[in-house]
User: Fold these one by one.
Assistant:
Number 1:
Amino acid sequence: MADTEQWDDPEDVNTEIEVDLEAEVEAELAAEDEDSGEPAAEDEDSGEPAGYGSNVVAMAGREFEIDEPRIEVIVEILKALGRLAVRGEQAALRQLQSVARNVTPSNRAVIFGMLAAFSVEDLVFLGTAVLQFKDFKEGRKWLRSIKLELAPLIRAFFLNLSQSRDLRDSIQDFFTGLGMADGFLEGLNV
């Protein structure tokens, strides 16, 4: 049985440790790349995203080449995430209101709420965007007609993310702004 450290005083625990998650992930990926002998960065000449070796995603017998997403694709990805975030916050609030009144969910609670609220329809909307369909309506129709698989859509999401600085910056700026707005919005009765 392993020894576990006991805290005598709960105030000895720093619950507000800031971690640069992006830097931690990059360091971990760089360490894995060193161990595997693979290059750590995107090969500018080949246009292939780092870590994937190919920007092709196969799903239901069809192949999708995921290039740097055009602005319509970026907006559709953000809309799909936003739609899920709204429902996630609602789910988090329902859970937290059973414990206390007038609560404001943390970003972490919203993310877990998003996972709890995630549906097949969310996957269809996100999949249409990350697979970069030219016609989003046609993409949703096709995705509803096949047996959906999560892994190719997750890969397509990260291929879009790895190839679009605009998408990465938009998501990062959103969460930075959300953190700044938390204090400002506290005083408003909305």
Number 2:
Amino acid sequence: MEFDEMKMIWDSQNNELLYGINEKALHNRILSKKKQAQHITNISELLLIVVNICVGCLIFGMTLFKQSGSVYMYISSAWMFASGAYVLLKRIRRIRGNNRFDRSMHGDLNYAISIASYQVSLSQLGRWNILPIGIFIFLGILEGGKSIWIAVGTVMLLALANYVAGWEHNFYKGRKRELEILQNKLVESDNRPS
């Protein structure tokens, strides 16, 4: 083999990608992440709906049958009913919008990112929802003439719930960021010249 032939082989090898992506394995990984995000989102939605509505009913029932019912407790139960109904409506909209993504690797990845974004906003909603509920319950406890220590204990419990909700929210943001990084890498590899 002469030098020119070897140089031509060398040049042609340098123009090729030195690595390849196993698209089947990558697509399976994306499908796994999408399925996991769907599962977590379904559980989160159902928990928010059931807990808000059940606790709202409990507070409403306890306040209704109590002789000196607190206005703040009625407001708290109404707020919880409204929160549960809002999450239910968001869930219905999310489920109806599932069909707008194609079933390609990019489509599944876009769908997984969409679910992850929704989960981040849902966890943020749950976290912010602690504030009005806490205020109404705190005021209801004070208005009902209960001990200040019960009110302080309730505030501390809600502060702990807010801390845990913040940790959970950051976890979901990290998962979303992972999917977006993967999407950027896929776009870069698709735009790379052959």
